[in-house]
Write a structure and sequence with these properties.
Layout (H helix, E strand, L loop, with lengths): L5 E3 L2 E4 L10 H9 L1 H6 L8 H17 L2 E8 L5 E11 L4 E8 L8 H15 L5 E7 L3 H9 L3 E12 L2 E11 L10
InterPro entries: Acyl_CoA_acyltransferase, GNAT_dom, Ribosomal_N-acetyltransferase
Pfam families: Acetyltransf_3
Keywords: Transferase
Length: 188
């Protein structure tokens, strides 16, 4: 599949880029240099330009092979990268995937991720014929919990010692949303 672009009102979702016209590398390096991002997204590090360039290549390689779909969430006016959303562990046969998302530090708390994620879920359940999307986060990540709630995910359980935060093993919460679930009426 080719990368899909999604219009989410004040945000425009497109493939991550690093070319002569658009360079997402600085925004990725800034995001992953942020202490809060590193705290919860420790499985992926982007400490320098080379790592961010590799990340973009990896994200874009997922599209044609149909195992990862990813979007840079950009401000529709400034084109600044405000967030990122990745559907991974895609199983087309069963219509399932897991979502990972993050916000650039300058754009946190503005509703970017819930707005963009709801647009991605609409596409995934509609055009991509997915049935179940899973969302996991550390129990202490209250911002991620709010995203799950705003996007109509249902809490399914707790995964014990699933992750490490602040050098300590911590539980993660497991949420899911089905294509048959009602669309969230409003983002709070």
């Amino acid at each position: 599949m080719e990368p899909v672009e999604i219009n989410a009102g004040e945000y425009y979702l497109r493939a991550f880029r690093n070319d002569d016209r658009v360079n997402d590398v600085p925004a990725l390096v800034e995001t992953y240099a942020d202490e809060e991002t590193r705290r919860y997204m420790h499985r992926l590090t982007m400490e320098d330009v080379t790592a961010a360039e590799l990340f973009i290549v990896l994200m874009n390689n997922g599209w044609p092979k149909d195992y990862r779909w990813s979007w840079a969430v950009c401000d529709a006016v400034t084109a600044d990268v405000a967030a990122g959303i990745v559907l991974h562990s895609i199983d087309r046969k069963f219509g399932s995937a897991e979502v990972t998302c993050w916000a650039h530090p300058a754009h946190r708390g503005k509703g970017v991720v819930p707005t963009a994620l709801n647009a991605v879920l609409g596409w995934a359940f509609g055009a991509a014929d997915m049935h179940r999307i899973v969302y996991k986060h550390s129990v202490s990540n209250l911002a991620s919990q709010r995203v799950a709630e705003k996007c109509g995910f249902t809490l399914e359980g707790r995964l014990r010692d699933e992750s490490i935060v602040d050098d300590q093993r911590v539980d993660e919460l497991l949420w899911s949303r089905l294509a048959t679930d009602p669309y969230p009426e409003q983002l709070r």
